[in-house]
Amino acid sequence: MAITWIESTLPESTVRYEANTKDLTRLREEARVLEEELNKENERNTELQKSINASRSRNDEMVAMMQLLHSETEAVLERHNLIMETPEARAKSADLHKKLLEEEKLKNSSAAREG
Length: 115
Fold this sequence. Notes:
Blueprint: H1 15-84, H2 87-114
């Protein structure tokens, strides 16, 4: 029986692998930190999106109210204009105009006497 020597497949030195181990550990830590940052950014983006959606909803409500107010104001003005076109309203307006002109004349004449 003969003894044969089997060559080792192990490297002669593991120093080269220690550097790789340190790099691997550093890279794993960096990946963990980056993953935490990414998760925080995702949370902030989710909150921001919720805030934007709520704001958009409030804006839509305000626009709807403004449109309602606008249409109601137009309707009131239209009714006012129709009423003002009636003979009764025209007569009353003419009477009021005459009265205001007379009051203005009185003011002007009293101011002229005083001045």
